[in-house]
Amino acid sequence: MEKIIEDPEFRSVEREKYVKWVDSVLQSHRGSTVKELRICFSLVKSAGKSITKWLEFAFERHTEKLELNLSEGDCLHNPNELYAFPQELCSNISSDHPYKSSGLFGCVLLEDVPMLTRVNVTSVETSSMYVERLIPTLLCCLSQLEILTFDTCCKRELLSMLKFPMMPKLKKLVIIEALHGVDSSLLGLSHFISASPNLREFEIQQRWSTRAERSNNEIQKGLKHFPLHQHLNVIRFLGYYGCPSDVELVNYLLENCVTLKEIIVDTQNPRRMAYEPLDSEELKLAEIAKVYAKLQLEPLVPKHISLFLC
């Protein structure tokens, strides 16, 4: 995979070989159903016809779990090369086969495809072009989603562009974002939360780098969105760094979630895989962040809400 990422000519050749191989495998399949289909390779819209055929194959065979990962590791495709999930796969499917689908930007994980309740959307760059394509593509499944994982790679000040329509059945929301350089507000995420009136769990995974800096920004308070959230009772903040923006987001949730029961805060960088050894510098920064978390959150969180610092 490393050579595919670094060598454009080799990548082009391997892409063509991979597409032909998948085409051949699916054409040879004779079964009427598929339990799981997983396709993971760095592909762009030049392979669009084949990718769409793969999706049609999955839908026609009532695939229970479909993972289509077209990303290039931690790198991003050129926006002009991205394959966008065809909306006609939502609108043209008959009522006898009520499949639902999601936008495709880098990687999408679809589970329980016939009655989709869970979607992972990763490598999303928030720009006007992306938003114009992403929101309409997701419309066909937002009303029934129960779990949504959203991995952004945008500037925080652009988060407010992602104003989702109501997601009445959403019970768990996971936001993955990055902290590089000086922090800025995370309150743009409030649109996700206010669009999910029945949300039970909210998790933010903040991937910080060793270049992250804590700003001197003032924390905004008193930002209540009515009606207040009546069901959110668990918050997980992974990668808490002790920035004013971190405290501001927790304070916003405390002010707007009336049934909150517990807040779980982990200062370890969630970017690290479980099998990777701990980096000494990151370990030191995580310990410093834990001190900040203790000083910032213990006085802030009411006694009736359990606060767990990891």
UniProtKB/TrEMBL annotation:
* Signal peptide stretch: none
Under the heading InterPro entries, the entry gives: At1g61320/At1g61330-like (IPR053772), LRR_At1g61320_AtMIF1 (IPR055357)
Transmembrane regions: none
SUPFAM superfamilies on file: RNI-like (SSF52047)
- All copies of the At1g61320/AtMIF1 LRR domain together span 131-305
Q: What is the name of the protein in this document?
A: At1g61320/AtMIF1 LRR domain-containing protein
Species annotation: Striga hermonthica (Purple witchweed)
Q: What is the lineage of its organism?
A: Eukaryota, Viridiplantae, Streptophyta, Embryophyta, Tracheophyta
